[in-house]
Amino acid sequence: MRGENAALGAAGLAGFLVLGEVIPRLGLVKQEYFPPVSRIAEALGTEVGDSAFWTALGDTLTGWALGLVIAVVAGIVVGVLLSVVPYLREATASTIEFLRPIPSVALIPLAVLLYGTELQSVLLLVVYAAFWQILLQVLYGVRDVDPVAEETARSYGLGTWARVRHVMWPSALPYVMTGVRLAAAVALILAITAELVIGAPGLGARIAVAQTSQAVPEMYALVVVTGLLGLLINIGARTVERRALAWHQSVRGEVTV
């Protein structure tokens, strides 16, 4: 079944690449705006051979990784604290509901005022966007804790942190891993967006330079790189999720199928 799905996916990708090559050459779209795939591939090869490209890629991955780690740690810590201290959860409920819908891109002017085009600007946007993915999943996971298991732990005299470790955390972990996977994708989007709009060093800034200099094939090549980067991050996040939840019924059922 997996082999068949892989074959269908490869066939779909091949068809997409053929269309991307044929449509511009037939004149259905102007090659100045959408060059054939072969020209994009040639530009991609040139980019890969440029040391500045690898520096930009490193800058993007640095902002993405640091922001994601900060968001994951902060989201888990805050989520657990809000879950074990009911009064704290009630006191912050309105604040969370107010802050959560604010788009991260709306904070770009604030980031520029505070940090200019430095890495901190990227981190501010990445952490703000990814933090909510983790926090909400932690809160949802805690709500899913079996009340019978919670009461049993209390009856055996387990303290607050013992219950967090042995009861709450195993129940919330599947939700946390889902939040990490979503946050990883969101963090990449915001890292690229910050570089593109603010001009912070990275692939986004390189895309902006290619656009303004009318280097269209190079621009598309860099866009392809960001897409491949997102794909690799998603695959990596799913792999980590499966390993972390190897004991969970959902993953065991997936492996069996």
UniProtKB/TrEMBL annotation:
Q: Which Pfam families match?
A: BPD_transp_1
KW Phosphoprotein (keyword) present: no
Which subcellular locations apply to this protein?
A: Cell membrane
**Superkingdom of origin organism:** Bacteria
Membrane topology category: Multi-pass membrane protein
Q: Which InterPro entries match?
A: MetI-like, MetI-like_sf
Q: Which residues cross the membrane?
A: 64-86, 98-116, 122-142, 172-199, 219-237
| Protein family | Belongs to the binding-protein-dependent transport system permease family.
Q: What is this protein called?
A: ABC transporter permease
Give the species this sequence originates from.
Answer: Streptomyces incanus
